[in-house]
Amino acid sequence: MNKIYRFVVVTILLTMILLPISNIGQAAIGGTVTELTASYNNSTGTVKVTGAGEGIAKEIIVIEILKPNGDLLYFGTASLDNGSFESSITVGALAVGTYKVRSADYTGGSYNVAQFSVASTGGPPIDEEVDDSRPTPSKPETPKQSEQKTELQVETEPSKVTATIKATGVTDRDGQTIINIPTDNMNKVIADALVKAEESGINKVDIKIAVETTGDNKSLEIILPKEVIRNIKESRIDSLTIDTPIGSILFDEKTLKEIGDTSEGDLVICIAYSDKDKLSSEAKELVEDRPAFDFSVMSGEKQISKFNGKLTVRIPYSPKPMENVEAIVVYYINPQGKPEIVRNCMYNENTGQITFKTNHFSTFAIGYNSISFDDVQEDAWYSKAVSFIAARNITAGTSDNNYTPMGKLNRAQFIVMVMRAYGIQPDTYPVDNFADGGNTYYTGYLSAAKRLNISQGVGNNLFLPDKEITRQEMFALLYNTLKTMEELPTEATGKRIEDFFDVNLIESWAKEAMKALVEGGIISGSNGRLEPKSTSTRGEMAQLIYNILKK
């Protein structure tokens, strides 16, 4: 995040958020808020505040709502548009009484005061807990957009600041929940996170929306106002996570910028259980009784199905008693109904979730693809890794249902497995391939590797696919693949390539790659050595891919 830009943003936000109330009321400077009105909608739990402004230089005003006993119920800001403003503020069910609304120029000046009365309450008093065990309300003709019960929380970690807004929505009897995130609450979360990041000297800021619901869900819709999307983009937030009982989605910075640039209205994010009766027979056979999910993102009236950035999806799943967790996979159901395996998916036994990355949304389903080889014993050190890559079709073994784990790895085998692991498709009709690309299982992969600059071969337009691969060759090709996929590790581990005894044996063309992979924690070496000129076995290759994808 640009430091100068952040300093300007944080200075403004600190002034808006931390300015003492007494200063607002007593300062001699500042404009005047006029025509202030306030009203409360009992059915939606929202307060509508309108007004105008005279002489307000920054066009930003402060709004406060006070309880009947004088305690502060709400504090926020609004922006003037052609000299007037209108703000809809979610406060939930209010107790009976008269409430004051105060508004002033945030740079100074006197308060203007309006008030509204609550004659009867549609829920419990504001100082009491909501009883979430109450019967689920009947579904109205149009599902109610739940905006109540939001909580803000900011946490600081060594490398990032995470700001969380907790939102609770009411689930109707059909299992649908719609949650409309209030603009003011969300913007305060962003402001608080930026302030905390500046105070801590941290560059990375993540925003999280933690959704809770009152019943069993079949579908969830989370609505983010377009003003919030614009603020997220302009504040250069690194990621946005939507965490729900059905699953969670993390939007990375590149995706958020793209959405911000192309947004045509409010952003609607939908996570729902899919109707498996609509799956193709092939998909049903693979999925069986495991869950399937529909993910979608709408911007205004436009559906966004493909992104330039990456989305990280986490789905809860409880393995069946005899399931090997390494063989639990995710299938993407393409528009033709054909299931395609998601190779970067992995199940985490600690969280009880399966995680995968994608750049598009549609239907995804959990499946099970257990593959065993005659020469891989269950208690072998490489057994889990081989099961993992076989289940994801990263490897099909060698021959006669063998994997040949102790066999030496050649250059073609390595490049094919790495490219499959990261979902890089082979060229169907190679145009500019290596001279020894041949016409075999690796031909299209070598062509794609050359086209994507993953490999330029060994010279004279040769790749030498059958030659045993050295560790420095292996790591150079891995580095180029990760760079192409924008998957290079970004967080330093404190490890240094200079700490290894045989660093002087690394060829100059492999030094940059091995340095980056050592510092990123992908290469750990053995007994203080990197052994750049040694060769590796197929079992070691399986373990390497397993370790990288599991990080």
UniProtKB/TrEMBL annotation:
Keywords in alphabetical order, please.
Repeat
**Which PROSITE patterns does the record match to this protein?**
SLH (PS51272)
Q: Positions of the region Disordered?
A: 119-159
Which positions make up the signal peptide?
A: none
Which Pfam families does this one have?
Answer: SLH
Domain SLH residues, every copy? 369-432, 433-492, 497-551
This protein's name: S-layer homology domain-containing protein
* Organism name: Proteiniborus ethanoligenes
At the highest ranks, the source species' classification is: Bacteria, Bacillati, Bacillota, Clostridia, Eubacteriales
